[in-house]
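[step 3/7] fold_predict: job queued, chain A
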Amino acid sequence: MQDNPEFNTPDFNCPLPLHSTDHILMGHGGGGKLMQQLIEGLFLPNFNNPLLNQRHDSTVINLGDTRIAFTTDSYVIQPLFFPGGDIGSLAVNGTVNDLAMGGSRPSYLSVGLIIEEGFPIATLEKIIQSMQAAADHAKVQIVTGDTKVIDKVINRNHEKSHGSSLFINTAGIGIVEHKMTLAPRSIQIGDVILLNGDLGRHGMAIMALREGLQFDSPIVSDCAPLAEPILALLEQGIPIHCLRDLTRGGLASAAIELAEAANVEIELTDDAIPVHDTVRGACEILGLDPIYVANEGRFIAIVPPDTVEAALSILHQFFPQQACVIGQVRSKAPNIDRGYVTIRNSLGVKRILTLLTGDPLPRIC
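[step 4/7] structure written:
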């Protein structure tokens, strides 16, 4: 670790042949450096337009006097059921949260189902009922959808599967009821980073299930809708500059994306970031850093320093004794071309965080 960014820049990383592959790898969907290269090198140049270039969880669109947030996401998690949820509740909550991160009131969802031939109808019914329960909880309506049935999947051993695959796409529309712009470009020097709870529960709940890890206190996913606390912050006048939920790539990847987009330094305080002891233990067993592990019910809010106390007071109504300050926005070093994230440890030493090259975990969302 170095305290001088000159010796540890965002470009200092393992020299893997990132540009040499002619085919999509699993890492291209992992939320790390490979995915960023795919987005910046292929998607953005071809789909280029001002709305897409917002690069936020949801895009805010002006329709006359009305502003809406629009988003979509796909879910391919295995196993379909996990402690704290299932693919159905995950699909609803994930899209609701993307809409909430745009500062909107989630209102309508679409559901696209891709079902492998042979999939049990009883299991599908259980997942559909879970989706409706999640929609009721989040106060959104599922108003349109589509269903496709595909042939049985051929695995790597050239064997047909047993009809166990289900993939879900959800898209959503939310209504923006304020005039603020919640986006990376609104981030300002001196802003404070708030986190709503402990990290890593969703990713490690899935991994513990897959790896057969057992703990005295089982790890339960944090999968949950986040619109209600976000709307409470907005309704009580907190001038939020930016929001981001901490899904693929976790806190570290989300913070790096925001810092680069805003061209600032985001300094995180290691000791201030809450991680449950069981999650930390599971991460140590699997060699993972909790700040890179996916969450499905955690977000950061970037707010002006004079609003921190009021914002925390509101968040504590939803996340008692969990919401906290984990960092601050600073001016970046003039010798570094793009924004970056540092993390300071208890000794005061800080290092720069980098995007992971691939996906440290199998598909978990």
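[step 5/7] annotate
The radius of gyration is 20 Å.
The first helix runs from residue 33 to 47.
exit 0
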